[in-house]
Amino acid sequence: MKIVFIGAGNVASNISLTLKEKGFDIVQIYSKTVSSAQTLADELDCEFITEFRHINRDADVYFYTLKDRYIGIYAQRNRFPNAIHIHTAGSIPLDIFEGYANNYGVIYPLQTFTKGKNVRFDGVPFFIEANNQETEKTLQIITKTLSDNIYYATSAQRKKLHISAIFACNFVNHMYAIAANMVEGSQFDFDILRPLIKETAEKINYMHPLDAQTGPAVRYDKKVIDDHIESISNENVKEIYRLLSENIYKKAMSKKNNQST
């Protein structure tokens, strides 16, 4: 199975290197950035190109590991209808390929990827979707070499999963950044928060996040909340604190009401 990767970023690097390790034939990497394309191609020992007109025309599978807004553009340009076309995006629907290819699908890893840090796919949930059964079989073959944790999800389901992942990962990480700014403003290092972060993350391994919630917001200790908001200098952070506190309390009350009925 000959595979071409269109895109050479973090997702492309992690998936292509793992597939290569598992015996798949990665024949070409495309990226408009020479350094990205060449660096990944050197690791894979394959050809790289920076002009799309030189795309390999004989591949069996084309992986679109690009920014979301470019997937449709390259799908229109890559007119090899009998090959399998796969994107890896959370919120882009399957039918982005409709009209340009006969066989297409999605392989979406529910994981965060950061440059310079390789991800082990063991246990990572993958969500697949395909436009026909034969393509789905191929997607399963590819994905099973990456992880045993495979699910079928429609485009609508995958979009909700992507949104949930943004809350669980991207937004949480932004909270870490806000916390780091505050603790460093108090002349302490972010390291002082790491035990708290670790314990918070460990708790949800064995309990629902609603059951793990603590702090003044869950009991709506208004005096403490108002005092905190008053002491925050950044107006955006003030609003984040207020909205989160209100939402936490509403969730806690809803849970309490449900338990009493």
Summarize the topology.
Blueprint: E1 2-6, H1 10-21, E2 25-30, H2 34-44, E3 47-49, E4 61-64, H3 68-77, E5 84-87, E6 103-109, E7 126-130, H4 133-144, E8 150-152, H5 155-185, H6 194-203, H7 209-212, H8 222-231, H9 235-260
Parallel strand pairs: 1-2, 1-4, 2-3, 4-5, 5-6, 7-8
Antiparallel strand pairs: 6-7
Report what the structure shows.
By secondary structure, this protein is of the alpha/beta class. The protein has 2 domains: 2-153, Rossmann fold (3-Layer(aba) Sandwich), CATH 3.40.50.720; 158-260, ProC-like, C-terminal domain (N-(1-d-carboxylethyl)-l-norvaline Dehydrogenase, domain 2). It contains 9 helices and 8 strands. Strands 3-2-1-4-5-6-7-8 form an 8-stranded mixed beta sheet, sandwiched between helices. Strand 2 (25-30), helix 2 (34-44) and strand 3 form a beta-alpha-beta unit. The longest helix is centred in the middle third of the chain and has 31 residues, at 155-185. The protein is elongated. The N and C termini lie far apart (57 Å). The model has no long low-confidence stretch (mean pLDDT 94).
Would you tell me the overall average pLDDT? 94
User: Which H/E pattern describes the elements?
Assistant: EHEHEEHEEEHEHHHHH
Note poorly predicted spans.
none
- The helix content, as a percent range, equals 40-55%
Query: Which superfamily, in CATH terms, is the homologous superfamily of the largest domain?
Result: NAD(P)-binding Rossmann-like Domain
Structural class: alpha/beta
